[in-house]
NADH-ubiquinone oxidoreductase chain 2 (Thamnophilus caerulescens), 327 residues
Amino acid sequence: LSITSLFLGSTITITSNHWIMAWTGLEINTLAILPLISKSHHPRAIEAATKYFLVQAAASALLLFSSMTNAWYTGQWDITQLTHPTSCLLLTTAISIKLGLVPFHFWFPEVLQGTSLTTGLLLATALKFPPITLLLLTSPSLNPTLLTILAVASTALGGWAGLNQTQTRKILAFSSISHLGWMAIILVYNPKLTLITFYLYCLMTIPIFLTLDTIKTLKLTTMSTAWTKIPPLTATLMLMLLSLAGLPPLTGFLPKWLIIQELTKQEMTPTATIIALLSLLGLFFYLRLAYCATITLPPNSINHMKQWQTNKSTKMFITTFITLSIM
């Protein structure tokens, strides 16, 4: 029921022309994911579900308020006809809260840390699609300066905060915030490029989440013993992490290259230089993850159980995603 509602909510938002329908789809999405977050009956999961609900409800209310303000001044309920400056500002804020862009990012790492890896995957990919679609539809009337500031701040904080983490879910959460910065910066100038970046981000994140779920790795300390479980999967995990970091021969390099090229065309070379340098912070913690997964041997005094035997039934579709992620 929850999964069907998720698909339904996303589809309603993506295909609607009317603001009320878009808002309805977002609300259905929020209500559908709550049971999945709180499924494990752990206090941490309940806390995550509560945080998620409050943040999303506030963002949805703000989105409805922005569309009503626009309708009040212009008489238009059409999504593409968002022309009033105050409404544009409110909408940008509402969508930033929904996506977890800086400075509205505080809820995202906490919620991701409180859920399972599979639900975390949904939060990081599928639930970002409807708000990004709304941004794409309204992109001609959004404020480029505001989006650039939010984007640079997100890329910076995603890199800096990720350096300090030992939990893989929090690292992936900050990685998501950093990538959202790359998507937001190019939104006004080339919306299709934002969509390509989002698709490729999903393509790279899905196999990482599924691999970590398969080898049951939630912390950096357990990552160093992961090679004993499924060695080939751990070896490809390193390549996937480097792809997410955006190293040249891998898939993740393509969107960053295209975005920097487009920013240079728009005569925003300083901004392009800044976000390129800030992505190096992200590269550092991806390298640390890759190093822990493949190169290090654990020290002798480990205070958790070594799992030499593991369930060999790896999900078959992981291989497809892995191949596309590191092509």
